[in-house]
Amino acid sequence: RFPWKLITQVIVIFLVTTQLSVIAQQRFQLNQFVSLNEDTFEQLFVMNPQEANPTKDYYQTSVTSTIITMDDLWNQLNYTASRYFGIKEQAVGPYGYGWHDKDTFDENDKPPMKLCVKHYEQGDIIPEIKSYSFQGHKREVEYLLNDTNVTSIREQLEGSILENNFSSIIELWLKFNLSSVYLDAQSSPLCCQFDITLLIENRIHSGSMPVSMDMSSNIVGCSDNRSSYDPATGIYDNKQLTILESFVLLFLLLSTIQCVRSIIKAARFTKEVRTFFRKHYNYRLRISEYTPLYNWWFVLVVISNVLVALGTILFLITQYQEVHHLEIDDIVSIVYGLGVFLQWCGLLRFLSYFDKYNMLLITLRLALPSVFRFIVCGLIFYIAFLLLGWLVLGPYHPKFKDPSVTSECLFSLVNGDDMFNTYIQMENISLPAFIFSKIYLYVFISLFIYVVLSVFISLISDTYETLHEQWTVRSRGLLQDFASDYIGRQTRKQNDNNSNQNNDNAFEFLTSSMYSQDNSPLVPNGGSLVQRVTPRNTPTLQLPISNNSSPRVPKRGLYPDLVVRDEN
User: Fold this and answer.
1) Please, what's the b/e burial string for 286-301 (b: 16 or more CB within 10 A of its CB; e: otherwise)?
2) CB neighbours of 147 closer than 8 A, spacing ≥ 6?
């Protein structure tokens, strides 16, 4: 029979992979544009930004500068304000002051910055006499800062909380908006607005105020955007991507129809087999015995088709509405990416028809129960080490500062990554913590690399070796043995050279119409059913045949796509 499902799935995979390549390239360029602008704004609006040290600071925070003195604070505020109000003259990028209505836009208009101050309602600190006075109620005050070419920031904030009671300040931040245009040769132009916040923290009153910058972006299609393909400039035409996405949706629908059709036929056949055993053998098949009659690869393909179709439709909506929220785009990309992932995994079902190519799937399936039980046990050790390291080493080591970072560090150590730097990054401030860190790391690395990881690998490798050495001895279910018994009797009866015929396709014989009523595989000789036939002399289970009626053979024409295989 012509492999329609294989051809359809290959075409679908080719189309979705091509579509993924185009979308991934566009997403990369857009996210790179946003990331580069964020770096630019840090250089523009933060005075004396710190340069990251790649050899030491593995977990970079958002801190870009530090304020030590009051003069540093006023200089930072004036510096940021002067750069903001002079952005059009100083920056090389095409920046403007946020979005405005086209009718009311004034090119010389410079919107004010917002300075928000969060402080305690009252806060006095007298360290000489070990005295302080705080009221827990917090307040927020907002100031509007105008062009510094007219008046300085200090003059504009004269008499404010920054001058009268600075010790009560918790944090302050500057807020302002800038706009720009994203131009790329592979996609249509987009207009962007960047909401920038410069945060200066004083929560713990440590004598230094870290400065960090946060930026969010809002990306939409420009009002005067013209999207077309120009051979001279290479501007991308959105119609080409639309045509590709339409073909993807068409073939996804065709593939889904084929798989759903096969699932329905498998359900009908399963019902008939269960009825046959209940009627002629007075035996009710358990769920674990008749589930092999379903081809679960079809269910996987249907799920992947739904995910890819959902992602494609959402991408189409985003494309025509020309609204890009990076967080929403990330969620859509995850849905679409999982669909493509499952599409490629669906090709593995065609390799299941070849024993040697199917050993990976069989090994994973057989080793999974043992691996899962072992992981549960190892996970208890892992969590215990995680909590211990976070508590003791967190204040002194950058890789143990919070549970997430600690888990990443421990997982890297299990895989032998960056061990030496983990040792030397421990600060020698507390002698007990320093000595404990050495013992902690030696014990964890020795236990998880030499014991836990070795046992984990051996569980999988032993399963593979056992499977490779005893390939002909497999664990089967009742229905597989039922069909295998018939094949064994037929080969002995014919006395030919086909005794090594692969029993994985036994159910193809079970449902085939090439056998007559007398040779039906559902009617064993003598009215008994041999449960298991293997090269060894194993006991057999006899199931009596009911006298209700004579057995019948399901016709192959009703189930042309169903071939149940046992890969154990």
Assistant:
1) eeebbebbbbebbebb
2) 85, 110
Distances (CA, A) of 181 to 53, 95, 188, 190: 32, 8, 11, 6
**236, 240, 341, 488, 555 from 22: Cα distances, Å:** 11, 11, 16, 54, 48
Cα–Cα distance for residue pair 485/524, rounded to 1 Å: 8
Residues 228-238 have a mean pLDDT of 48
Whether residue 558 contacts residue 268, with contact meaning beta carbons closer than 8 Å, is answered with: yes
Helix 359-393 to helix 453-469 angle (10° resolution) is 170
| Residue 370 structure tokens | 């043992």
Rounded to 5 degrees, what angle do the CA atoms 341, 346, 348 make? 115
Which run of H or E residues covers position 360? Answer: helix 359-393
Cα separation, 211 vs 66, whole angstroms? 6
SS3 551: coil
List 66's β-bridge partners, or say none.
Answer: 210
In sequence order, what are the residues at sequence separation of 6 or more whose Cβ sits closer than 8 angstroms to the Cβ of residue 389? 400, 406, 409, 410, 440, 444
Phi, psi of 50 (to 5 degrees): -75, 145
H-helix or E-strand containing 261? helix 238-280
CA-closest candidate to residue 183, choices 92, 318, 93, 105: 93
| Helix or strand run (H / E) with residue 263 | helix 238-280
Helix (H) or strand (E) holding 215: strand 209-221
Per residue in 337-386, pLDDT tens? 999 999 998 888 887 777 677 777 788 888 888 889 999 999 999 999 99
Q: What are phi and psi of 466, to 5 degrees?
A: -65, -40
Quick one: 213 exposed, middle or buried, by C-beta within 10 A (0-12, 13-18, 19+)?
buried
Mean per-residue pLDDT over the chain, rounded = 75
The values of phi and psi at residue 112, to 5°, are -70, 155
Q: What is the pLDDT of residues 421-464, one digit of tens each?
A: 888 888 777 888 889 999 999 999 999 998 998 898 888 888 88
**Tokens 């004269």 belong to residue:** 158
Q: How far apart are the C-alpha atoms of 394 and 405, rounded to whole Å?
A: 10
325's torsion region: left (phi>0), alpha (psi -120 to 50) or beta? beta
CA 41 to chain centre: 30
| 509-514-518 Cα angle (round to 5) | 90
Whether the CA torsion 116, 120, 121, 126 is positive or negative: it is negative
- Best CA proximity match to 203, nearest among 269, 277, 123: 123
Rounded to whole angstroms, the Cα distance separating 418 from 420 reads 6
